[in-house]
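Batch manifest line 386
LIGAND: zinc ion
JOB: complex structure
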Amino acid sequence: METAYLQDKLAGYFTWFHQHPEPGNGEVETTARIREILHDAGIEVLDGRSGGLLKTGLAARIQGKTDTPVVALRCDIDGLPITEASGLPYASRKAGFMHACGHDFHTASLLGAALLLNEGKETLEGTVKLLFQPAEEGGGGAQQVLDSHVLDDVREIYGLHVAANHASGLIGISPGGTHAGVGGFKISITGKGSHGAAPHHARDPIVAAAQLINTAQVIISRNTNPFDQGVLSFTHLEAGNTWNVIPEKALLEGTFRAFTDEKLAWIARRLQECCRAAAEAMGVTVDFSWRMYTMATNNHTALSEFAAETARALGLTVIPAEPVMGGEDFALYQKKIPGVFWTIGINSPEGAHHPGFIADMSQLSSAACFSAALARNSLARLSGKP
Ligand SMILES: [Zn+2]
Ligand SMILES: [Zn+2]
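JOB STATUS: finished
ARTIFACT:
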């Protein structure tokens, strides 16, 4: 396929996806459009018992010379509840929703990889599964995919994310963790309300919350080795509803992130200790709960080198991937399947999740060619025919 022809085709797909963002687990039109494009290209969509248990999103399959080995290419397809302010002629047509994380770019480029692999499938040393994952933005999409068993026979998995602040086309690859593990917490403080003029009759949950927030700052700033990455942010604080009443309750929420499971569990433990201390000091009850949203990504060392070589052989420039504290549920796959999560620069004027985010669509064909080459070359290596 001519690169210019492919690029044109993918730009068309991309602008359609950009105009039609849908929230995680609600990607109905998006899934139908992906299905239609794959169907028109004669690519098998896995339905029913072979991996079609997903309500939104889908998996497809391109079989080469043999059924095995199997490798997977993954993209995510969900948009975000953000009102677009990019000024683009192809801006979102859905009020309040936007593709502000580049998942439209990921989807279009994976469709491009599918077309390329399908075109050359008679020389493919195995089978490629194409995964259009729903609900990456906190909606549990990767877990749904794992529960569907569509990846059970997959030996290696590759996924991409756009890098907003990298120059267009730069490929970012690093071994180990590039996206942090993500924990979230909720703290309910129950004290005793009273007149604002009689604090001695109250057990003030607002002062307890303030103290707790302050104390918790030491977890990262004083207890953590400065060379070890971690972050803790309180993001939601709610108490009271007027100016002259001390309320009974306060609610706090927040997130903490780090690159190892041990570190995440340790932050949660320290936070719990801060809660206990605040409860004791202030005479309030503090109820603390937390959960993991995703663990950190973990790029396989040898496969990262393989991916970098594959990119260079295509004439692409490879730089180290920039580690971010944002989470990415591709990490769930990497707990089971060795893989690489790589980035491609798209030179956006604003970062991901910003209403002014813009992905440089001229890089679609490049991302598609690289994805296709990763699948093709890994199958050749796995089947001993490099
Ligand atoms: Zn995102
Ligand atoms: Zn994303």
